[in-house]
TrEMBL record:
The gene is prodha. Pathway: Amino-acid degradation; L-proline degradation into L-glutamate; L-glutamate from L-proline: step 1/2. This is Proline dehydrogenase. Belongs to the proline oxidase family. PANTHER family: PROLINE DEHYDROGENASE 1, MITOCHONDRIAL (PTHR13914:SF0), PROLINE OXIDASE (PTHR13914).
């Protein structure tokens, strides 16, 4: 295990564990064989033994002969009768119509017809207007083995100018407004007007814009209702939240920058360790001061974060390598900014506690990379508190990011050391075009993998690592959120190799309502835990969400030829078989 990896783990350590962090040769895993001698592998760095990770084979290379005797599950994703058993013929025809319309929705008059919307797009991708109206669909899907992740999809219909104004007001602090020319912030973690409308280039993720604290309270209540409905619908439900819905995003930007600057500092220390301890000391950051700061920012637990007596601005301190001093990220924070930061954390805490009471697993959605370090860190702190007995909190990892695998492995390692249940949702990512444009325009490294194949490799690499951890301890859990049939087949193959039964409820699958039924329903009927993301809300308030998805997602739908072909195949099978008025039985 490299020292760089070791210090990265420090950012996620607890006071009780920071002195215990060691790279144990029996517990570390790596897919790369070490070429160093045994003497080179064991080193002393600041009193901590750092050992090079021993090479360990992947799942496919480590299975014993007895596993071949286990009953392997094979699922035929070409079996249209099983895939569409839950749909009547009218629903099949609607799906075919919608997938065709997705390609021609650029017609300027299309969105004038709300009734047509409800018959087509709304009926295909939205379950209903409220909790009562969505119950029949949820019950029907459950009868065929498919659960629901409820998603209240009402979205503000803002103009671009309105969205930019809201974002700049919410992300720029009072101190920055007073000194707009001050250039001491990392440009990636500052708000930029040309990217103020965070909806740009986003195909499927919903975007929240901060208005005031009352609106955040209302959105928290909406999430509470979704959690309650998920708990009432099944014994093992899921619900999803976004942190940008729960508070002013200024805090997420600032906390992300602080975390990244501390990581940079630790990387600096690790680079200097190989040369001379004196060089590190010459940076003038006194060790006692560093120790105090570590216990404040890196070792703070969730209970302290939400406590009214904790001053959140005290966390926002960063090391200055030029001066050798710790400095506040901003010179001043207003009392209201302090309260806003605290309220965001307290709202998240309310949701986590409610999820635990209802027996619902709570997935924290990933967002843009300039928010994500803070979101991931806060989610990890929640996992430390709420995942002691079972997995309640799930973090989301975007596999189109270059750093995805490093993030997954460090968090898994920490969960193993501290003994809590690791929960992850793997996605490819929803902000690729926006992220690339922003990095290029503002001038920082593109965080996205170079191409789609690289993202696929990253997804499978992260997935296999977590599956290996499940095989190792049965304390890891993963939601494979994908429409990619090859990835689903890859997952099933690995589960067969490791002898992992779907009834163990360690591996879950997720797709959007109205898409990829040929994947979801065969999985559900074979006993795998599979869930549909189920949007709901009034027609006129969901139209902005559907409209943008239709307009921006046409490229994806053009590639849905396979799904359209399967729908036609099933429809023809029913007609030729005398099932003109087929109705699902459940």
């Amino acid at each position: 295990m490299s020292y760089t990896k070791f210090v990265a783990a420090l950012l996620r350590a607890t006071p009780g564990n920071v002195r215990k962090i060691r790279a144990s040769p029996g517990r570390c895993r790596s897919t790369v064989a070490s070429t160093k001698s045994q003497e080179e592998k064991g080193q002393q760095i600041d009193g901590c033994t750092v050992v090079e990770a021993a090479p360990v084979e992947l799942i496919s290379q480590t299975k014993h002969a007895e596993n071949t005797q286990l009953c392997k599950i094979h699922i035929d994703f070409d079996n249209t009768e099983e895939a569409y058993k839950s749909k009547d013929n009218v629903e099949l025809l609607r799906s075919l119509l919608v997938f065709k319309l997705y390609i021609i929705t650029s017609h300027p008059c299309f969105w004038m017809f709300e009734k047509l919307m409800k018959m087509t797009f709304y009926g295909q991708f939205v379950a209903g207007e409220d909790h009562n109206s969505i119950k029949p669909l949820i019950q029907k899907n459950q009868a065929f083995g498919v659960g629901a992740v409820l998603d209240y999809s009402v979205e503000e219909d803002l103009t671009q100018e309105e969205a930019v104004k809201k974002e700049m007001d919410a992300c720029v602090s009072e101190a920055e407004k007073e000194s707009p020319d001050a250039d001491y912030r990392e440009k990636k973690y500052k708000a930029h007007r040309q990217f103020g409308d965070r909806r740009g280039g986003v195909t499927s993720a919903r975007t929240y814009f901060y208005a005031d604290e009352s609106k955040c309270d209302n959105q928290m209540e909406t999430f509470i209702n979704c959690i309650s409905a998920s708990g009432g619908a099944s014994a093992d439900g899921f619900s999803a939240i976004k942190m940008t819905a729960l508070g002013r995003p200024q805090f997420l930007l600032q906390f992300s920058e602080v975390l990244v600057k501390w990581r940079q500092f630790f990387n600096f220390l690790s680079a200097k360790q190989g040369k001379s301890d004196m060089i590190v000391l010459e940076q003038k950051l006194e060790l006692e001061q560093l120790k105090v700061r570590l216990q404040t920012i890196d070792l703070l637990d969730w209970n302290s974060l939400i406590n009214d007596t904790t001053k959140i601005s005290n966390l926002l301190m960063v090391p200055n390598l030029q001066t050798g001093h710790l400095e506040p990220l901003l010179n001043t924070f207003t009392a209201e900014e302090e309260r806003q930061m605290k309220r965001m954390l307290q709202r998240v805490d309310v949701l986590a506690k409610h999820a635990m009471e209802k027996g619902v697993r709570l997935m924290v959605d990933a967002e843009q990379t300039y928010f994500q370090p803070a979101i991931s860190r806060l989610t990890l702190e929640m996992q430390r508190k709420f995942n002691r007995e079972k997995p309640i909190i799930f973090n989301t990892y975007q596999c189109y990011l270059k750093e995805a695998y490093d993030n997954v492995t460090v968090d898994v390692e920490l969960s193993r050391r501290e003994g809590w249940y690791f929960g992850a949702k793997l996605v490819r990512g929803a902000y690729m075009y926006q992220e690339r444009d922003r990095a290029k325009e503002i001038g920082y490294e593109d965080p996205i993998n170079p191409d789609y194949e690289a993202t696929n490799r990253m997804y499978h690499k992260c997935l296999e690592y977590v599956l290996e951890e499940i095989d190792h301890s049965r304390k890891a859990n993963i939601m494979v959120a994908t429409h990619n049939e090859d990835t689903v087949k890859f997952t099933l193959e690995k589960m067969n190799e490791m002898g992992l039964s779907p009834t163990e409820n360690k591996v879950y699958f997720g797709q959007l309502l109205g898409m990829c039924d040929q994947i979801s329903f065969p999985l559900g009927q074979a006993g795998f835990p599979v869930y549909k993301y189920v949007p709901y809300g009034p027609v006129n308030e969901v139209i902005p969400y559907l409209s943008r998805r239709a307009q921006e997602n046409r490229g994806f739908m053009k590639g849905s030829q396979r799904e359209r072909s399967l729908l036609w195949t099933e429809l023809k099978r029913r007609v030729l078989g005398g099932q003109m008025f087929y109705k699902p039985v459940y």
